[in-house]
Amino acid sequence: MYQYNQDDQTILEERVAQFREQTQRFLQGKLSEDKFRALRLMNGLYIQTHAPMLRVAVPYGLLSAKQLRKLAEIARTYDKGYAHVSTRQNIQYNWPQLEKVPDILEQLASVQMHAIQTSGNCLRNTTTDHLAGVCKDEIEDPRPYCEIIRQWSTFHPEFAYLPRKFKIAVSGAGTDRAATQLHDIGVHLIANEQGEIGFRILAGGGLGRTPVIGKTIRPYLEKKHLLSYLEAILRVYNLHGRRDNKYKARIKILVRETGVEKFTEMVEAEWLRIKDGMVLSDERIEQVKSYFSPPAYTTDADQDSSFERHLQQDPDFASWARFNTREHKIPGYRAAFVSLKAPDSPPGDITAEQLDAIADLAEQYSFGEVRSTHRQNLLFADVRQAELYALWQQLDQLNLATANMNTATDMICCPGLDFCSLANAGSIGIAREINEALDDLDYVHDLGEININMSGCMNGCAHQSVGHIGILGVDKKGTEWYQITLGGSSENQAAIGQRLGPAVAKDRITSAISNILEVYIEKRLDQEKFLDTVNRLGIPPFKERVYENN
Amino acid sequence: MKIIKDKKIVDDSWTFVADGASLPEGDIVVTLARWQAEKEQLLSHSGNLGIRLEPDQNIAEIADDLDKFQLIELDFPVFTDGRNFSQARQLRKHYHYTGEIRAVGNFIRDQLFYLYRVGFDSMSPAYEENLLEAIPRLDDFTVTYQQSTR
Predict the structure, then answer these.
(1) A484/A502 Cα distance (integer angstroms)
(2) Is A38 on the interface with B (CB under 8 A)?
(3) Nearest CA in chain A to B129
(4) Domain ranges in chain B?
(5) How confident is the model over B80-111, as pLDDT tens digits?
């Protein structure tokens, strides 16, 4: 993974000093709440229901064992002994004290971490495919480009006060696991007709209140122009994005109101002016790539026969391997998820003890690295198949081996009313209820691939609008209600879910989800996945069942 | 009045003239509307001439007249309105404007570093009572990742 040089480290340390000074001024009453608000948000610091929430950046989801141990130490020292993995692959602390945040940042800086631009109306953490560099269907590893974008976007002097937040995702594989069509800018590594690798650039996607699927504004861009093209898009957005209404300020609204052709013209005109002045050189790309070269894989990992034997002898292990591991480009290796979706704990939460243990396991089994995923789990990317059994046994002891990745109980869930000051309704409690209703793991496995995404309000932090089943908490005269959508997807055939019908009451939401799953079981053809059944049948049969008792 | 210019605190020689007010002697700054309405009269003014733009006023509107202005002021109605960062950059890099660019209005000292980097030479922050305390914020970082206009 990328290693900081002296300049990177200096920037972090200067940032800590800067934020410490800003916090002091605020605490001394020399900086008003509204001004400090914008400054603290750009440092990932929210004021929440119970306490501030600090969002720590995990650039494109990569973490070292050393960083995990530091995150554990921070959880113990400054929080209540746990942390939370967010849908932007970041780490959140829900209980830090405001005056201690500069100290936390200093601790983070000691392991090349920070909270820079994890919130606020600025360029956010760039995200990517959690299987980057190891999946079989990859055109090129996207992480070097993520790092190049990270550096360009960090403290960019022109784009720190945008109309609204701005998110970029990069994908290098045939399968889009980074939801690039739902980002302000999506970057796809692709090959042109000559076989040269470059980028397809999408713009104007986004979730939140008005979910929109991004549109291709440049089918092919040479690598050397990556930063100039991004800069052109950002400049057009910064100058022309709406600032009169924060709900209409994202780039998706600008693209829609301007029209994609006209918007593209504006970007291209700006780009032509600047492209020759900011060329990304091959040397620079190669230099960054060198940090992401493959680890020292053993060449005979596929000679192992124990993996097959354990699969046959231990059905629990076999089920874990089936649901929680993925193919790897190197024969004899697999990528293994750490499930943060145990039925008895809030989705995405992780304790300090688990973080420490995962650091040890990473060093033992996966070259000392771990990844965070946008479905709020962790991943060991490079595990020898011969060691999966031992890894599974240890994960199981840590309550991190629930065999449910991409199933109905692998829910994406925001903190909801329990923590967040924006939320209209609870989400963690509903997740627990759904888990209780789905306590039969065989049934969950039989249901197969289903993404349930649940947000406690319109802001849509849990991406409910692209969940196969989306659940959105709404407030009706002080009581919590839930709107259900079906058929959303963030992958290649990205789609926004359709409303099932009127919102259902809190005491009906779990049975409604159960009803939907029953209809699927009854109507599916052969091996048909949930999303395919929904797409084939449409909303009516599901709607009928859910509302027949109302 | 004191302002920050080239990282120092200096006396301001310019006077902003509201629309309709009579023109004083010396260096004056006028609005875009006044410039467009009274070009000839303003060009015969004995002192230096400056113009003040609001963030929704496109630089392109004065592109042909840039050599008439020794000063261009970009006004911040609120500090969170970041359009002026792009406006200043465009003045420097697209239009190659070499006169003084000044930030005026409701921005804060925590923005000085960025302002300087995108091409502002001088700053007159309405919120700041103590410019001496604000000056170090021009140098919050000694290392940067992007090209600068200077």
Answers:
(1) 8
(2) yes
(3) A30
(4) 2-139
(5) 999 999 999 999 999 999 999 999 999 999 99
For B2-139, give the CATH class. Answer: alpha beta
A152 CB near a chain B CB, below 8 Å? Answer: yes
Architecture category of domain A134-291 in CATH: 2-Layer Sandwich (3.30)
Residue of A22, A121, A235 with shortest CB distance to B110: A22
Q: Does B95 touch chain A (CB under 8 A)?
A: no
Residue A422 has what pLDDT?
Answer: 81
Neighboring chain A residues of B93 at a CB cutoff of 8 Å: 274, 277
Question: Residue A226: helix, strand or coil by DSSP?
Answer: helix
CA dist A123 and A156 (Å) reads 8
Nearest to B147 among A35, A235, A278 (CB): A278
Alpha-carbon separation of residue A360 from A26, A99, A142, A354 (angstroms): 40, 32, 27, 10
Report the C-alpha dihedral over residues B2, B3, B5, B8, rounded to 10 degrees: 60
For domain A301-397, the CATH architecture is Alpha-Beta Complex (3.90)
Q: Which of A154, A239, A277 sits opposite B145 (nearest CB)?
A: A154
Which 11-40 residues of chain B touch chain A by CB within 8 A? none
Contact, A278 vs B147, CB < 8 A? yes
Q: What is the pLDDT of residue A452?
A: 97
pTM for the structure as a whole:
0.95
Domain ranges of chain A: 6-109, 134-291, 301-397, 412-547
Binary contact (A14, B148; C-beta < 8 A): no
Of A154, A161, A274, the CB nearest to B82: A161
Look at residue A487 and give its three-state secondary structure.
coil
Show residues of chain B in contact with A152, CB under 8 Å. 145-146
Per-residue burial over B58-71, b if 16 or more Cβ lie within 10 Å, else e, is: ebeebeeebeebeb
Q: What CA–CA distance (Å, rounded) separates A290 from A349?
A: 33
User: What are the chain B neighbours of A40 within 8 Å (beta carbons)?
Assistant: none
Tens digit of each residue's pLDDT (9 = 90 or more) over B21-65? 999 999 999 999 999 999 999 999 999 999 999 999 999 999 999
- Give the type of residue at A514: S
Region of residue A377 (phi > 0: left; psi between -120 and 50: alpha; otherwise: beta): beta
Q: Is B140 on the interface with A (CB under 8 A)?
A: yes
In the block, tokens 């960025």 appear at B114
Please list the residues that pair with B4 across neighbouring strands. Answer: B9, B123
**Which candidate, A213, A186, A204, places its Cα nearest to that of A255?**
A204
* CATH superfamily to which A412-547 belongs: Sulfite Reductase Hemoprotein, domain 1 (3.30.413.10)
Give pLDDT, residue A208: 85
DSSP secondary structure, A434-492, as one string: HHHHT--HHHHHHH-S--EEEESSTT-TT-GGGSSEEEEEEEETTEEEEEEEES-B-ST
CATH class of the domain defined by A6-109:
alpha beta
How far is residue A408 CA from its own chain's centroid? 18
Yes or no, beta carbons of B87 and A239 under 8 Å apart: yes
Interface check B110 vs A, CB under 8 A: yes
